[in-house]
Amino acid sequence: MSSLRLAMFVGDGRCRLFATRFQRRSPRSVTLNRPIGIQLLAALLTVYTMAGFLLAIRTLVERDDRYRWWLIVAAGVAFALASGVATLAVWRVEKRAPLLLVACGALGSALCLALPAAVPGAALAPGMWRAAIQGAVLIFAFLSLAAWYVRNVVRAKARV
Predict the structure, then answer these.
(1) For residues 75 and 109, what is the distance between their CA atoms, to the nearest angstrom?
(2) CA torsion through residues 140, 90, 49, 41, sign
(3) What whole-number distance in Å separates Cα of residue 101 and Cα of residue 156?
(4) What is the Cβ-side half-sphere exposure of residue 15, based on CA atoms within 13 angstroms?
(5) Are 83 and 52 in contact (CB under 8 A)?
(6) Contacts of range 16-20, beta carbons closer than 8 Å, 24 or more positions apart
(7) Which residue range(s) make up the domain with 57?
(8) How many structural domains does the chain have?
(9) 82 lies in a domain?
(10) Which of 11, 81, 126, 146 has its Cβ near the most Cβ atoms within 10 Å?
């Protein structure tokens, strides 16, 4: 059964309204139903990508000479690119997605450690390195766990 839809075509300055019929897709041409975990992980990685670029752009614009701003820019761009590539691989449920998630976790950890490394020793707040190390461990552990989940989803998809 086909559905009735209206389509507007603008040609020589006049609007025309045509009733057109579009065929519904057959059950075999259904797109891949992604698990909710894959969708949520892809959304989170998209936020990571935007945050990495935003950090890099803001740091590049401000260029505070008291800090090693170039280190933060480089780490932010690297993390954003890794997150973006991992997002696409996770969304497409590719075999390389778990490896890219681990790489993204490693670069995210490097970004956490680059923040206190960019600050001169005299300006470091107490506990800044400890917090950076804890953040680095947390992001690496989370993305490693996500890689394990994606690996299981990829294996289940391969069996089907």
Answers:
(1) 10
(2) negative
(3) 18
(4) 4
(5) yes
(6) none
(7) 35-159
(8) 1
(9) yes
(10) 146
